[in-house]
Task: inverse folding
């Protein structure tokens, strides 16, 4: 099974889309193995967005990502990363197709609702950044014998 980090960003929280987004991930077949609400700070954002930390717009990212809590999740499933990224749609919502989360709900690249790991290596690093091992649960879904 493959795992991915998911962050429901401040615009998802403020627009009341958390339940809708989580429902879509679960309907896709992804299993939530960890979830928490957390307030991010500049330290974790500099690590998470290291590739953007030197950009002139980085302070705007920090301001946006710290305006309110985020919901962090770890989802699991066969080909979870590809399935998740397909469900999210393109990073730029104007390029995301309808029926994806961003295609249906996001307004701009700056307010695109959700982050997901872009590969297995990134997923491992991001999961460790946001979750302790003891926060990740292993369990079988009731219907797992049907898969």
Result:
């Amino acid at each position: 099974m493959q795992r991915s980090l998911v962050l429901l960003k401040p615009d998802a929280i403020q627009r009341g889309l958390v339940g809708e987004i989580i429902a879509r991930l679960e309907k896709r077949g992804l299993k939530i193995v960890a979830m928490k609400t957390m307030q991010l700070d500049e330290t974790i954002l500099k690590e998470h967005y290291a590739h953007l930390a030197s950009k002139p717009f980085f302070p705007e990212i920090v301001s946006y990502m710290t305006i309110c809590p985020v919901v962090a999740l770890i989802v699991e499933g066969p080909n979870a990363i590809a399935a998740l990224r397909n469900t999210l749609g393109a990073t730029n919502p104007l390029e995301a197709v309808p029926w994806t989360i961003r295609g249906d709900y996001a307004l701009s690249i700056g307010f695109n609702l959700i982050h997901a790991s872009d590969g297995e290596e990134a997923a491992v690093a991001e999961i460790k950044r946001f979750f302790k091992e003891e926060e990740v649960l292993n369990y079988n879904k009731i219907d797992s014998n049907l898969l």
